[in-house]
Amino acid sequence: MFKIAKANAAVPLMTGSLNDNHQNHQMLAQLSVSESWTGDFSSGLIRLGKWSAMLHGLSAEECGLLNLIRCYDVKDRARVLELFEQAATHCSSFCFSTTVIMPNGLRQPLFCMGESSGLEEKYSGSMVGLFVFPRFKLEGARQITSRQ
After folding, report:
1. Would residue 24 count as lying in a domain?
2. Which domain CATH number covers 43?
3. What is the pLDDT of residues 22-68, one digit of tens each?
4. Is residue 49 part of a domain?
5. Residue 124 has pLDDT above 50, yes or no
6. Close Cβ partners of 75 (under 8 Å, ≥ 6 residues apart)
7. Predicted pLDDT of residue 131
8. What is the residue-wise DSSP string for 34-95?
9. In a domain, 143, yes or no
10. In the chain, at which end, N or C, are there fewer CB atoms within 10 A of the end residue's CB?
């Protein structure tokens, strides 16, 4: 799944969608590891959290886009790069799913949602997003995310 759309902050939230009474974050934590990330167009750096860096098989929490997508399934890399390039040229929202291939051969599913903003001036703007790593085993691979 690869999607990109023009950003539209005017889209109304569903009634009660921000109501914390449903405790959806507990279910999300039970089923996945999730962590936010940011990208800065002026520096070209993507800043990951410690879990995202580890689950991408990266040694540092800051990296460039190419270092990040090198971890992804070969068949998805070009399309993910295209999504990021589109988001870097037009304020937009995007999402994709792929598989992270770890250096030790383990395969970790990944869902990503994000949006870009602040592209009014050349070499300016940023991205924010969320990585979601499901806690399930891929066939033929050992599980790498477990609940703490």
Report:
1. no
2. 3.30.450.20
3. 567 787 778 889 999 999 998 999 999 999 999 898 999 999 999 99
4. yes
5. yes
6. none
7. 96
8. EEEEEEETTTTEEE--HHHHHHTT-SSSEE-HHHHHTTB-HHHHHHHHHHHHHHHHS-EEEE
9. no
10. C
